Amino acid sequence: MTETDASDPLVLERVSLTLPSAAGPVDILRGLDVTVGRGERVALVGPSGSGKSSLIAVAAGLERPTGGRVLLFGKDMAGLDEDGRARLRRGRVSLVFQSFHLLPNMTAEENVAAPLEIARTPGATETAKAWLERVGLSARGRHYPHQLSGGEQQRVALARALASRPALLFADEPTGNLDAANAAHVAELMFDLVAETGAALVLVTHDEALARRAGRTVRLRDGRVAQESTTTA
Amino acid sequence: MTPLSFRFAARELRGGVRGFRIFLACLALGVAAIAAAGSTAEAFRRGLASQASEILGGDLALSVRQRNFNPAEQAILGHAGQVSYAVASMAMAQSPAGERRLIELRGVNDAYPLAGKVTLKGASSLQAAIAPVRGVAGAVVEQPLLDKLHMQVGDQFLAGNLPLVVRGVLLEEPDRLSRGFALGPRVITSLAAVQRGGFMAPGLPFGVTARVELPAGTPLAAAKADLHRRMGGLVRIRDREDAAPGIHRLIDQLEYFLGFIGLASLVAGGLGVFGAVSAYLEVRKPVIATLKALGAEGQLVRDIYLIQIGLLAALGVAIGLAIGAAAPLAMGELIKNNLPIPALFAVYPGPLAKAAAFGLLSAAAFSLAPLGRARSTPPASLFRSDLSGTFKIGPEIVGAVLAAVGLAAMAVATAPTPLAAAIMIAGVAVSFGLLWALGWGSAVLAGKARTRARGPLRIGLANLAGPHSAARTASPAIGLGVALLAAVVLIQSALLNQVAEVAPRTAPALVFTDIPGDRPAEFDAAVRRGFGAPLTSKTYLREPFVTGRITKVRGQPVDTQKIARSDRWAYDSDISMSAIGPEPEGAGIENGRWWPANYAGPAQVAIDVDVARGEQIKVGDQITLSVLGNDIDAKVAVLRKVDFGGFGASFPLVITPSAMAGANLRQVAIAKASKAQEAAVIRELGHSFPTVNVISVREQLEAATDLFDRLALAVRGAAAVAALAGLLVLTGAIAARARARTREAAILKVLGASRGQILGAYVLEYGAVGVIAGAAGVALGYAAAWPVVVKVFHAKWSMDWAGVAALVAAAALVAGIGGLLAAFQALSKRPAPALRAE
Predict the structure, then answer these.
(1) CB-count exposure of residue B75 (10 Å: 0-12, 13-18, 19+)
(2) ipTM of the complex
(3) Is omega for the bond preceding B113 within 30 degrees of 0, making it cis?
(4) What is the predicted pLDDT for the residue at A3?
């Protein structure tokens, strides 16, 4: 665990998450402490069901923890309702998902522009075009998600996530649905762009090689931090 | 709403409206029904208005009963404008072969008709046809009279004692609609001939109407008020703007009935709307969550879907309006030559605007609540697909409730009788709530029962208990449709039974009117000869008859404007009276005591409670009656409930005989008779009492039964629209689950289930929905029909078990077929691709 700083984009203090189920409550996260510093790249690894994706959902404010504190850019999210958390995320936090989650009725360009439009950022379309060019898809701006390959869809998702130049990017197994060549291409692009924008990265992955590229690895087991390690590039 | 929400909504709509076919159909069906009902009613209203003068026969119509207009009155009318006179009476027509039949005899003067024209077959003009030739007046008659008496044009016949010659067949009179119901075929001759035939003698039940055509430019209201003042209160005056009040009321009621069916369809179809919006938002859940993960607030997301649903609702309403406006136009074109009422079919904005308002309010009431889920869908559902938006009290729920209240308020406010409408709307709301609760209850029960079941039964019960159970979605909608159909079927069958079975047993078969007051014993003897049996009080009753009007109550002149409209009939024209000494059998006394049989003191009266209600007349009150031109002051001795459909002294007013001493009143008699006795007595009276009219109640009941039968199909067809809405909701429920069913069927196949087992499970599931909805619908239909039959129509309740069974079976069959189709659709897909899609 690194030392907490007020300017850290993300601080989790004794965070727990218990979800109801037909068979009784299930403990997903059990008192986690994780801090992510500015520009830091953290990989979350662990077996299925260890709580990696849940940790991202809680850290990004998509889910309320049942215990502990989540500080996003120093702001405790406990006092915020869902709309308040959305406003806090807006322009500063982005997410990339394993199954892309592009808006199916919007073109690639509109998808990239969507978060900028929601944040009422001027010049959203121009910015989207520039980012599509940045991920090598300037010719596919008018295409709908179903007209793109999996790798292309994830590159659009990456452009959408980074177009607002966020300070913190959550990536939930971004290469999990891709073949090896596409996975390598997307991973390369993601690390390059994160380095270029200076965003902190929280990356959930099963791929140990990808995790090593992050520099810092947090290993989860049964909702707890089992091990933390750092590697030098 | 911001431009951003519109922009995103437009992008979302690129996906098309495939999932909204049921949504559109449900809205369009209800709106089309309401728009068609309103447009048709408006077409009839405009048609009537365009021919108002023809229907009334002039600008003003003044009527007197049992007397002619006196010379002074005729002079006043002559100054007002051009005048035509017509007398209406009943008479027995007798053919040369001795066959007899009751007719409505009409005598008109030279000026008739002032407006419109009489259409005849076999004669060039009415005046030429009714002119006397060699001392015998001519007449035009309706075809049924010629058929019944086996006569043809050129034959001579008797109307009472008056010889007439048939000179033509009467096809149409311009003023028929303003004159109402006829007890027999119509015959027109000259007024002079009717007078000569003795039909206008004092005490006979004839009426004279003067129709006035005002000089051009005369203000109608002023002319009417002037004549009212100069002619006195005993002359009934109508103007062309109130030419056929009965028909107007009928159109209003018909419009409301059909509109109500449309409204019920909107409510039943509302579940389809609700289901379609819910299913759509379920499909869009990842998009909603993604938008939120990208920073969109709940309100923006809600607005994006609100705009889409609003546009689709507008489209559904527009489709409904187009159908509702076009259907009457097409129908008018098809049956324009067979319409009994003039109609001007066109596109009328008023009824369409009303239908649109109903449609939009219904769309809001049923789609705002699920739209609230768009706002409350958590972005975490991107990680956990089981997460969904919840129904929380918020602006959407408040909006839905306000829209539902607005819908009900508008339905009540636009109804001809708001109280009845409020009861009907409340009935629909309560029924809907009960059906909804029953659907939920059935799902819970199925959940408990499935633990004890095996195989297809268990699959069927599990689906019934599941979160997308058709018991919760389709059964309330089908149930409401069945309830409406059941109510209509049960009301119709009970009334039909009353007319065809009960009434012939309890009501008299024959009514004799205009029996000369000085020959009662002779008349009784003639009837006895005709019947071939002695007369008893159980089969024959004869009493004096006269008509009179209540002019003062407790010393105050009656002001009909202050009397409730529903009670005014007893005060604004003459009503039937008798003079009876001894208390009649089954007098139905509710208050007071009948006078002694030989009472000879100051006049007393017994009044029917429905008559008394208009002026709150109580026992002991003093009233003044105008009878045969004389005022009679009488004390109210008795308030009684008269059984007008039974065999007894059914007079709303009965006075002590001494009050009418010396009046030599004509008499009426009622009798129970077989069909053979009926024919025999009509023949017998032809010899000895040709001027006595014989009304065959049996014939009237048969005519009513026939009318009921003809109406039954049309009314049931209209009610079936609501059932169609239920069917649409069922289709929507099946369609919404089609993908999940395909996957489920694939898994079941992989697990070794046969096609038969899967088919069985689905048919069982949907068949159960049909049985639940059908049985509950019939029970609710019964609850609605019983009070209407017993309390409103005062008829005897009878249960149409065959109709009820047919409805439940039809609901189960239709729903079962729905299940079968769902199963075939699911089984038609190969399991491997279906599982891969998962």
Answers:
(1) exposed
(2) 0.81
(3) yes
(4) 45
